[in-house]
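Q&A log
Question type: sequence-to-structure
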Amino acid sequence: MPARACTWDIAKHLSGETLDAFLEPRTLAVPPRETFGPPRVYGSAGEILAMFKRFDEADMLYIANPSELPRGRGGGPVSSGFFVEPKPDGTDRTLQDRRAPNAGERRLKKACRKLPHGSCFTEIQLREGHTTRGHGDDLPDCYHSVFCSDSRAASNAIGEARPLADFAGTKAAAAYRERYPEARDSDLVYACNRALPMGDGNAVEFVQSAHLRLLQDFGAAQESELLEYRQPVPRSAVWEAVMIDDRSVVAQVPKAAART
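Response status: OK
Response body:
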């Protein structure tokens, strides 16, 4: 994870139902579809606590009272599992097994309908004397960068409840004691992910919506140039594809055009 996370307030790029759902996940509440067993967090007790302290260093840790968590079919608080997956560059991808919270939330499918597909680019028909030039970029550590509200963070609880004393010395514990002045070291609390986790059923919708709006605010991702899967391709010389945190732009230019 990055040295500092939760640096992108995507709420300013959202609106309507999507904004409401991002800030307050209870607006998505539906009767839980399934019952799940205890959440599994892969690692020893010491490794798990070390991970939470690393969360805290990166501003990713939120400590929640059990009353703040969503409820499952049996009425108890719902939490998630957590694991990592190695990436080719030697770093780890953090993944949250959020099936239990997801089961009690409906899915938003608005910006997701604007997702492109690589096959769309096969429909380019080059004009005589032209070639293509492309550019690609991505939002680094995108999901770690997203800052979530207290309510959304509480829906991202990880593992079982543990004594508040386990988090002594963390910024998140100090913030918890400000919210709950009568808190005791023996009180059971939940460690939560303040960032937007990979595993949230609506994470793609939130990031796709915010990324599109951010680009559009600066004149990019125009409807006349935007690629969408199963839709007619643009008639313009510039095609732009926005896929969650990735973006590709391909333009037809004269073969003799100077590179800039």
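Response note: The first helix runs from residue 16 to 23.
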